[in-house]
Design a protein that fits this description.
By secondary structure, the chain is mainly alpha-helical. The chain has one domain. 83% of the residues lie in helices and 0% in strands.
């Protein structure tokens, strides 16, 4: 196995743990998604917030906002799978 694959796995693990941390926080704050429609709406809201971050002026604030919102999109995707698809 090459170092590229190891680096990719390490980076993927960091991203997954960030999304899992966000998922845990969301589950502590909000009830389970009640329906596919609600789950879709939550994901769309997070994607809209990511789009707002993307449209910000370039710089460290934009980078931090994009990271935060992208992690939230990933977390809500995982929550959709968990709450709606894996019953």
């Amino acid at each position: 196995m090459s170092n590229v694959n190891i680096d990719l796995e390490q980076e993927a693990a960091k991203l997954i743990f960030a999304a899992l941390d966000e998922l845990r926080a969301a589950e502590a704050k909000h009830a389970q998604m009640a329906s596919p429609h609600e789950g879709w709406a939550v994901i769309v809201e997070e994607v809209d917030e990511l789009w707002e971050a993307v449209r910000m002026q370039s710089g460290p604030d934009r980078d931090a906002a994009m990271l935060k919102e992208a992690v939230q999109v990933a977390a809500m995707g995982l929550r959709f799978i968990k709450d709606i698809c894996w019953k």
